[in-house]
UniProtKB/TrEMBL annotation, chain A:
GO CC list: plasma membrane
Record has NADP as a keyword: no
Organism annotation: Marinobacter confluentis
Protein's cellular compartments: Cell membrane
Protein name: Na+/H+ antiporter subunit C
TM spans (from-to): 6-21, 28-50, 70-91
Superkingdom of origin: Bacteria
Disordered: annotated span: 98-126
TrEMBL record, chain B:
Native source organism of the sequence: Marinobacter confluentis
This protein's name: Monovalent cation/H+ antiporter subunit D
GO cellular component entries: plasma membrane
NCBIfam families: PRK12666.1
Localization: Cell membrane; Membrane
Length: 126, 504
């Protein structure tokens, strides 16, 4: 079980890192998702892999550690929110630059930076 | 157990939740409530600093669980210092935002307060996983704040910032998992106790976990190979947000100080001083990189963003000396640099409002309005940041130089810091003389009005540099005792023995 588990974590992380290094935002978001799957499984395994264990000491022979499961649950929730945010941000970037390159439009970086004074408009639609 | 410990967490939390439901309330009400919340947070931080001043550790255990079970908040001198540092900066940045920067986003005040909430949890927590959660809270808020404002040039730096920090969070979780799988605990005091007892076979796992933690904190603190996201992100953020972000790199530095002194401190056996020999050269290269960036900056915001990296390099060089005097000098510098850089970011916005289309770019332009006032502020800020006498930056750098023991380390530290300071000075004088003195004939469009709401916070933050000089004696006494407390982790471990049951 350990070997299969380790291979799954390794494959997920490796594919995640590979996708993260792509130049388009969609593969990057997919890469982040895969990476967080790998990390969550890894965190889960830090309480040792066992079947049939109960999280109460004394109830069975083999007891399982409930804490990593609580940690994973927190990490999943946070990872979920972050993925949602990064998807929205990528869409915004696509809309702003009409291009899904992670650096915006490649020609954008050559243009001098646009300057804009802070406006005092109150409650304008954001 | 002292219930005041959670005040700096509860106040921005409640204030932030109120703001979340008040998106359509009149802006005056939202502003009043927002500023009131930040002021109350500052008051509670000062109260906690008074408590921490007696050199004891205070513990708050949620749900009254006996530590190391359950989540604990621990107040010591360092935590109290960071809380006050943050709340002062946040209050001035928040007042500045009333000058109009908060207008076009209904949730600005809520995000601002949640950012404060995350920072305060990070400084108070005594649990490694809770530190991860605190990082996420402050990061989620910072993503929102970074995108706040108008224009398209924030999307790309924002995307880079978010993706980098998500990868950082993944690495953080992996290292937490590695450390937990060996020690079976995540409470920092308990970890400090368990690390020396780790079986030699398991040592490499903890070592790898510890080094990965350093990588994560290094990413937050923006040490050299991980610092290139910072200048574009900070330079494109709205002024009050950029000012508040002056504390964000310091969270990474705080975490390095905490973890290196407590978990991998002198008592940690084979893992004592983990990663410290890497940190010193990296810090010096970061410093050099920051100076080069500052010399090449094309606008004031970029210049000040590179100043953030210069301060990170200086701070980490002092911390990696791993001595009481080094830490004490680093903390003194930390107070100075955070406030001054925050003020400089606000000043850059003031200047850009007075220069029409030239904005804050370092180019010749028609003569700006209110030149005398702004140039004096710039002079004071630049002198404090570059470290010239008579302002606080000078004394802070002097303390750092003085804290190194003679040897190769001192030679390198002195060489890099002194030459670096000289070139920083050149960068500031070049930028200042072009922006303020080199004028061309031309028509200036209607400048933004320089109201008290925006002028006062910027001047106040920069003027704090003078206050630090006046109050140098009590401050240096405080940071000296903080360093002494940090280098004696045995006392911190005692918090585990705080009885929970007899508590009445």
């Amino acid at each position: 079980m350990e070997l299969a588990f380790a291979i799954v974590i390794g494959a997920l992380t490796a594919s995640g890192v590979y996708l993260l290094l792509r130049a388009r935002t969609f593969p990057v978001v997919m890469g982040l998702t895969l990476l967080s799957y790998g990390v969550n499984l890894f965190l889960f395994s830090s309480g040792r892999l066992a079947t049939g264990g109960q999280p109460i000491i004394g109830s069975t022979e083999a007891y399982s550690d409930p804490l990593p499961q609580a940690l994973v649950l927190t990490a999943i929730v946070i990872g979920f929110a972050m993925t949602a945010f990064v998807v929205v941000l990528s869409l915004r970037s696509l809309a702003d630059h009409s291009d899904d390159h992670v650096d915006g439009k490649v020609s954008d970086s050559v243009e001098p930076e646009k300057t804009e004074g802070e406006t005092g408009r109150e409650d304008a639609k954001s | 157990m002292n219930h005041w410990l959670i005040a700096p967490i509860l106040i921005p939390l409640v204030g932030g939740i109120l703001q979340a439901f008040m998106g359509y309330a009149p802006i005056a009400l939202r502003r009043t409530l927002g500023i009131a919340t930040t002021t109350l947070t500052l008051a509670s931080a000062i109260l906690l600093m008074g408590l921490a001043n007696d050199d004891s550790y205070r513990l708050y255990a949620f749900g009254n669980w006996q530590p190391p079970f359950g989540i604990v908040m621990v107040l010591d001198r360092l935590a109290a210092l960071m809380l006050v540092l943050t709340s002062v900066l946040a209050l001035f940045a928040h007042i500045y935002s009333l000058g109009g920067a908060d207008g076009n986003n209904r949730q600005f005040h809520g995000l601002f307060l949640f950012q404060l909430l995350g920072l305060n949890i990070a400084f108070l927590t005594g649990d490694l996983f809770n530190l991860f959660v605190a990082f996420e809270v402050l990061l989620i808020a910072s993503y929102g704040l970074l995108m706040h404002g108008e224009g398209k040039n924030r999307t790309v730096p924002g995307l880079h910032y978010v993706v980098l920090n998500l990868v950082g969070s993944a690495i953080f979780l992996i290292s937490v998992g590695m450390i937990y799988s060996v020690t079976g605990t995540l409470n920092m005091a308990d970890l400090a106790q368990k690390i020396p007892q780790v079986a030699p076979g398991n040592l490499p796992i903890v070592q790898a976990g510890g080094m990965m933690l350093l990588v994560v904190f290094g990413l937050k603190a923006a040490i050299l190979p991980l610092c290139f996201w910072l200048p574009s992100a900070y330079a494109n953020a709205t002024a009050p947000v950029a000012a508040l972000f002056a504390i964000m790199t310091k969270v990474g530095i705080y975490a390095i100080i905490r973890v290196c002194n407590l978990i991998f401190g002198e008592q940690a056996g084979d893992l004592s001083g983990l990663g410290m020999d890497w940190l010193f050269p990296l810090a010096l290269i970061t410093l050099v990189m920051g100076v080069i960036g500052a010399l090449g900056a094309t606008n004031l915001r970029k210049l000040f963003a590179w100043q953030v990296i210069i301060s990170v390099g200086t701070l980490l060089a002092a911390i990696s000396l791993n001595s009481e005097r080094g830490t004490s000098a680093a903390l003194f510098y930390l107070v100075n640099t955070t406030w001054v850089v925050g003020g400089l970011f606000l000043l850059a916005d003031l200047i850009s409002g007075q220069r029409g289309t030239a904005s804050d770019q370092i180019v010749t332009a028609p003569r700006m309005r209110n030149r005398t006032f702004l140039s004096v502020l710039y002079l004071v800020g630049a002198v404090a940041a570059a470290g010239l006498p008579p302002l606080s930056g000078f004394f802070a750098k002097l303390l750092i130089l003085d804290s190194a023991v003679p040897g190769t380390v001192r030679t390198w530290l002195w060489l890099v810091m002194l030459v670096g300071s000289f070139f920083t000075l050149i960068a500031y004088s070049r930028a200042g003389s072009i922006v303020f003195w080199r004028n061309v004939e031309g028509h200036l469009e209607e400048p933004r009005k320089l109201t008290g709401t925006i002028a006062v916070p910027a001047s106040a933050l920069i003027a704090l540099s003078l206050v630090i000089v006046v109050l140098a004696e009590p401050l240096s006494r405080y940071v000296d005792s903080t360093a002494a407390q940090l280098h004696n982790p045995a006392a911190y471990i005692e918090v585990l023995k705080t009885p929970m049951v007899e508590e009445k």
